[in-house]
Design goal:
Helix content is 29%, strand content 28%. By secondary structure, the protein is α/β, with parallel strands linked by helices. It folds into 3 domains: 41 residues, no CATH class; 105 residues, no CATH class; 131 residues, Cytidine Deaminase, domain 2 (3-Layer(aba) Sandwich). Strands 8-7-9-10-11-12 form a 6-stranded mixed β-sheet, sandwiched between helices. Strand 7 and strand 8 form a beta hairpin. The N terminus is likely disordered.
Length: 302
Amino acid sequence: MIGAAEDARPGPTVRRRIWTVRLAPPPGQAPAAGPAPPAVRARLDTLATEEPLEIRLRPAGAAAPFPISVTMRTPGHDFELAAGFLFTEGVVRGREAIGRMEYCVGPEATQQFNAVSIGLRADALPDPERLTRHFYTTSSCGVCGKASLDAVRAQVPWPAPVPAAGPRLAPAVLAALPDRLRDAQGLFARTGGLHACGLFDPAGRLRSVREDVGRHNALDKLIGEQLLAGRLPLADGVLVLSGRASFELVQKAAMAGAPLLVAVGAPSSLAAGAAAAFGITLVGFARGATFNVYTHPERVLG
């Protein structure tokens, strides 16, 4: 029996006392007679929790797990996050490689809710040297250009590029997806400080959503959920991001086998190049009634 109180586990939000300052009169309105002091009100506010999560691997037969990465995340769906991270970064090739997942045990047999141990099956032992090199490069910009694309393509477990045949998304359905994602963001509604990734079907129906302070974590949580449920590849799925689209997010979409990636914000040049190479339809600036299609427009405009 692990001696850890459940209330020691960090939650997705915290309450904090803050001071709201409002200029009086409002900006742009001339004061009636001289400057007035600002109005200050103390109140409690809800903030998104940000805590580190250390991901440790425990190969079959190993005496103890060893750490491979630390990410700042919003607590919740930690096992999905760890599984999705290991899969999208090419450490494991599928859910069959993953064994027991548990929070690590610290001093006095207490659970460490900011450290997870992922057991690996006997035939899923990664190369420690490759792990060290891999996570060093992806912790910043990594390598660039063609070398990046070739490295990711070698890891994708599905056909890459994604087959041209597949789901089509009506423009009106696509334009509505960001608002549907926002409506499903329960934690964002309370904090205003979280990214989200949603999985939709071609008819615009929401299948799943995950939130996190990190854009990459939100997508890893969602992909980890689908991986552990045996639902990869996402051959008819539409991934919707609440922020911008970077190369790493396109890489993760390719690892998940998703043919469409929609972002509320802008894509980077390398993200567009990667989406073109991987056969992914990349959409950016999806806001209201307008959006830009950067690659493979046939799935939206065909």
